[in-house]
Automatic annotation (TrEMBL):
Family: Belongs to the 2-oxoacid dehydrogenase family.
PROSITE patterns: BIOTINYL_LIPOYL (PS50968), LIPOYL (PS00189), PSBD (PS51826)
UniProt region (Disordered), positions on chain: 288-309
Residue ranges of domain Lipoyl-binding in the record: 2-77, 125-200
Protein name as catalogued: Dihydrolipoamide acetyltransferase component of pyruvate dehydrogenase complex
Residue ranges constituting the Peripheral subunit-binding (PSBD) domain according to the UniProt record: 250-287
Domain of life: Bacteria
Keyword Zinc-finger: no
Enzyme Commission designation: 2.3.1.-
Amino acid sequence: MAIKVTMPRLSDTMTEGTVATWLKKVGDKVSEGDILAEIETDKATMEFESFNEGTLLHIGIQAGETAPVDSLLAIIGKEGEDISALLAGGDAPAAEAPKADAPAAEAKTEAAAPAKAAAELPKGVVVVTMPRLSDTMTEGTVATWLKKVGDTVAEGDILAEIETDKATMEFESFNAGTLLYIGIQEGSTAPVDSLLAIIGPAGTDISGVADNFTAGGAATASAPAAEETKAAAAQATQAVAETSNGGRILASPLAKKIASDKGIQLSQVKGSGENGRIVKSDIENFTPSPQAQTAASAPAAKQESSAPAAPKVFVPAGEVYTEEIKNSQMRKIIAKRLSESLFTAPHYNLVIEVSMDEAMQARAAINSVPDTKVSFNDMVIKACALALKKHPKINSTWKEDAIIINHHVNIGVAVAVEDGLVVPVLKFTDAMSLSQIGGSVRDLAGRAKNKKLGPQEMEGSTFTVSNLGMFGITEFNSIINQPNSAILSVGAIVEKPVVKNGQIVVGNTMMLSLACDHRTIDGATGAQFLQTLKQYIESPVTMLA
């Protein structure tokens, strides 16, 4: 059955989109996950992924053209399928055709009734599925439902908070109606494309819809709705704060952080964003009333003068006490991905000691320039980017039938966050200056800790750097961040006696450990990369050549 693909809503403020490039042409085969086109929104140019399989039968918006959200973008179906009714404005010609050919008696039999119910949904009813909110997401956990069965839902309302492998994100409704059914309860985890909810006119009989969907019968009929829900992959993460009386306040993570730093209660701030969300400008422009200031300062003063708070948990001496903490979706995905990496890729580690004396002098000189701040980690990242250009086999990916050599350099930087670890990516790192690397790393790390990173900012790495030197760790080995073939572990700079020109002097050294996938990188190749990396770091001026 042919499926209409509409212009997706890729941001909360997007009303129209421009097709920058089509990556498929009419007649091409399309698989689920293939990139159909690059679409320019009001915020960025983003790749638009197909959530259907078949043949691209029609392109409704040509490259360079702009059209409103929900305009006909393309039609995907079986090769040679008649789509004239769809082009004329019909909804499902392919579903109608069999009815015309089928015998009338057969259509009326009870045996045909379940098939009809599976192929059609009641008028106005939309099946909402678990969206794919990141490139690595295979399942999601419903953290909180913000609507309950029977509630009225408007387009743009937040239905639920969904915990992915990378963050907890608000899931926005792209349909209006009444929430008729909830398929995944709070705290439950389900695969992508599972039945999340059903929305439609109040009082609609949806008996059998959920069962048919679970059995796979309604999957085709609900494909356009599923496609709309998956367009939420590019939505910005926004946090939900709770007031002391249990009421909910919508606020962006950045607004929450600034409010926390300034000691502002979100309940006192009026949001100017969509649906009353509190955004950064609301906090920056907020002036508390004298009564609010007095009320806010009183509890603080009382708390300072009071005795220290009692421990949360009292464990009598000699008694066994355990605490069970439910694994977050991020923690489960970290466990899954790293286990797969360690048990499928034959790891080996190469360690080299690097003199940091000249690097320390160079960094001091660079940072003496006004408005310039470069860290040792930034220098290591820059050195890695240049060394990867000289040793492209390190910058590779293993496939069962081939080794993919990446001639572009996208370095992922491991960042510890409250729930685990994320790896934002510096795209085309080799073309960036030290100051650009420094600024980008600070920006990405800051937004990672505030859960403000978009999924696209954590995709596409070709090599990874992990630094625990700031914690005083002198040497460690990391697990490869697949599909990368290597990861560099950076230790702390240590002041110790070293031998120079036959004399024992005080020097500063740093240990670097390179974990390699032996399927793609031989020992000699990894060693040559580390030698080049050492040369760049020990003579920073060579990075400017």
